[in-house]
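Supplementary notes for students who missed Thursday's class. We covered one full example, reproduced here. Read the sequence, then the structure, then the short commentary at the end.
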Amino acid sequence: MNTLSAMWFFNSVSRHCVTRRLAKSLPLFFWVLVALKPVDGRADSSAASTSAASGTDPMGATPHAGDTDFRVWAPFVDSVRVEVNGAAAVPLSKEAGHPDPADTTWAGTIPGVKAGDKYLYAISLGGTTSEFNDPRAQELTDFEAPGGYGISGSGAKPQSVIVDSGTGMPAFTEPTFNSMVIYELHIGTFNNTFAGASQKLDYLKGLGINAVEVLPITQNPLFPDHTPVDHDWGYDPVQLFAIKSKYGTPGDFQDFVNQCHQRQIAVIVDVVYNHLVQNNLLNAFDGFTLPSIPNGIYLYGGDKANTGFGPRPDFGRPQVQQYITDNALQLFRTYGVDGLRLDDTIDIRTYNPGSGRVPNDQGAQVLREINESYRNTAPQQPAKITVAEDLQSSGDVTDRIDAIGLEFNSQWDDNMVNVMRGVVTAVNDQDRDMGAVSGTLQTKFGNDVFSRVIYTEDHDQVGHPPGQSRCEKAIYSSCGDHAYGTWNSDDISGAGDAGDSCFWVQYSDSDGFRPGDRPEFQGNRADVPRLDFTEAKHNRDNRWPYGSKSQCFPRGQWQQDAGVSPLGEWRGG
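Structure (token representation):
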């Protein structure tokens, strides 16, 4: 239908990704742990000399042939030095062109430093010198399980890694937004890594999708209450630029995007600009704090300090605005992604001082700058898209005319979720409200029917609050005499011998099967025999409160004897 901006296919965030602590459903209860340590009294005279870095280089570390430029925003401090691979610290100089002390940038070029080298900034203020990671590092160390950063007492001390981002990505023509069929994809549960996900792209292409929306790929800390500790949805960044090391390197992500493009699949990345994790690496960066900004130059103080998910960036500080905008541009221009889905924009454009939400014009301006920058600054990329997860049904989010418009291409619309679930889980046709489906399809935000992304489920709708389930599970659960059955040639149930082919039936308390029942398979042809099922040795993933029963056959026997694929109904025996 021409009223659909996108149909949402959610298939990759496995049930086991929902752990005891959900990344977005609960406030965060971690103490602030800043990665710093005293620096010894090594004299600058022992360090290599630096020359002035080019002001045309981006902030962060930029490798060139034979040397690397460093540029870092660090106001109100006495000195900034760089430690590379644990060697003596090399001093940087204040960069010209920043008359405002609040805009002080330090820069320098260090010969012999190259991509792959590890570094930290040693920043001195008031006689105290501490080490900090680069806020713009694209790769960080010491986040590996089981004892990486985030695990109390592990001693992990992340370092920044110099990354050569190359010269850009091959050209790609994105599908028009109103023709996108989007598949939400969590790299970890889909196939572990960027390289693993690339191996399954042909499978996705065969589904008929032409875009993937990748859940956040930024570096998160380890969580001691997650199983495993490095398993999470991704909505807890330690900073904005670093790629999650569990998934691969920045180069691996570039290759994943390129592999998608070779199959004419666009890539949309979920980005989290509304908050950081509590034990983030921007907290008190450079050591300068005030009572009004107790967490330092990157983060708000006062009523705007926390979103409920974690500390909120200071959208009113121009350098923080640029930090966020530059991250969006890097994803578009360096990594070649085709769109951004901005998480929880309502917590960017508003805040809650305790008496209800009030506008945050500083945050709204950041959103406009992101949308204007990729369209209007060289190289202009108007075919790229941005999607807001705002969930307020507001036309202002996509308005480009009114002064209050935020200029997004589209926004998440979750109204279809409950409407569609009510329709597909109804047992009797007379209980299905098709008028509600039609009304939801025809809804407009503002003046553009394509200003919405609609879907029947996504990670939020399935993952929390606890007890939510996939749509197909809800369908089966609504019919008391049905269960959910699968066929597998590798005996995932554990009920048969190696090489056997097995049916496996999963059931819950609402399915009508109880321990001791013997479900049967009723085939879709009269000549297919009814099959009795025995108790399976264990549940498929050992994580969910459902029983399971299975029937196994030697390899190939089912196809030879029955002659049909295992399709039909499971019914209580």
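Commentary. The chain is about 20% helix and 20% strand. The mean pLDDT is 79. If anything here is unclear, bring it to office hours.
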